[in-house]
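Dig into what follows:

_____
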Amino acid sequence: MSNWEDLRREASVEYEALEVLGRGLSSVVRRCRHRGNGQEYAVKIIDLLQDESPNNVEIQNEIELLKEFAGVDHVIHLFDVYQTETYAFMVFELMQCELFEFLNKVQRIQEKTVKSVMKQLLLAVNELHSKNIIHRDIKLENVLIDENLDIKLTDFGFALRIHPTEHLRTLCGTPAYMAPEMLQCACDKKTPGYTFEADVWSCGVLLATLLSGSSPFYHRRELIMLRLIMAAKYSFDGPEWDHVQAPAKDLVKKMLVKEPLKRISLQKALAHPWFDEVIEDEPLVDDEAAARRKMLLGKFKTAALVIMATNYLKSLPMSLQNMKKNPYATIRVQQDMDSIAFKIYGHWVKRNTGQDRAALYQQNCHSSKKHR
């Protein structure tokens, strides 16, 4: 039996594979249980034969970086690694879910909780930068959260150790989180490239998304979205920002500055007054009862749904006449519309982008023409 077969058998002997937790282009993440101590973990299984798979050098780079941060707060802990000719098995600590999935369930997180999550994330990224490592793929999907709302930064596939004065030009990560200077590399060969400040930008996009429930630069047409990012063009005008405090908006402004050298540093961001502000205790998420109510409604028969929906509309602090004119003006309706919009579009929808949440309440359906 070859060494590769020995490793594969050793992995299956040590760990029992359980249900699938998530999938990527060339990988699947499963819950697994250590056969010896019964402890549960998450194992990332990478199919090395896929075209989209990382090569051996990239996998080894990720493994070495993760080992370096073993035991560091707010960075995912890699416990074990097995690699064969066709697969790589990376055993991580088990978290509850991705921050993306968590936000999907609750639509919007209270500002007090956003503050806690962001402080943990900034501390993690600051730890990386202190060792001259740039992450390059900070996004909701790469932040894991547990039942206590403690977070761990994960997925170091694009992470790289660089010289403090070195600039990069390779486009990495997800377009909606890319910094203007990174996107500029694809348009202008003379641009100096990007460095650690690109991670600060990505954190700023994530902060704005947590505060408002939608991406600050989202547009249904990706080209327009990229132009908005390169121009650092966004606003706090929407009703989703009405209940966000000024200090939080100020930090977003300082993180989403177009010029990298004028962008706030991680150290200054962590020292921002917003983190010292005392916010009154409130529920961890907006209207948890409403979220549970939505789940139950889906199980009822159509007749029961109609009756309950009628009673719900009657209980709202606004008339049906006003609801027809501006349904997004009431917080309770906002939350329901955000939930429905996410389920339909698969992302958070901003107003005036061609996919208005309020359009969900229009009586006339719009048909799309198919072109051959």
Summary: The longest helix spans residues 111-130.
